[in-house]
């Protein structure tokens, strides 16, 4: 796994409401677009790019499915993963089951990691 590349995807997508909406509504198309236009940038301009970064098939599948449990287990940073999916799901969850509903689900689905070392902090 390229922890850096997945974390970069989570970070850059989460900080832009338009990108976040695209990821929510059309994840496969957005992921392809992101790789082509943002993923290989070094910095905030097109002046420098890299060609060696790419998602693995497992990462791609998890990102498209919004499978935050798999991303966590692959080593994606837990805070970046939590905040992007709060941005995507929080309003929908709160409308049905009240405040912090998504956060509770996130916690519950990762409860099997309780007492273990988080994959994203293992070097």
Labels describing this entry:
123 residues; mainly alpha; 7 helices; 64% helix
Oligomeric state of the chains? single chain
Report how far the terminal alpha carbons are from each other. Answer: 12 Å
Look at the structure and give the mean pLDDT. 86
Instruction: Report the C-alpha radius of gyration, rounded.
Output: 15 Å
Count of folded domains = 1
Low-confidence stretches: none
- Major sheet, described briefly? none
How many β strands by DSSP?
0
Per the principal axes of the C-alpha atoms, what is the gross shape? globular
Describe this structure in words.
This protein has helices at 3-14, 17-25, 27-39, 57-65, 68-74, 78-97, 101-109. The chain has 123 residues and is an all-alpha fold. The protein has one domain. Helix 1 (3-14) packs across helix 6 (78-97), helix 2 (17-25) packs across helix 3 (27-39) and helix 6 crosses helix 7 (101-109). It is globular. The model has no long low-confidence stretch (mean pLDDT 86).
Please write out the topology.
Elements: H1 3-14, H2 17-25, H3 27-39, H4 57-65, H5 68-74, H6 78-97, H7 101-109
Helix pairs in contact: 1-6, 2-3, 6-7
Summarize the structure.
This protein has about 120 residues and is an all-alpha fold. Helix content is about 65%, strand content about 0%.
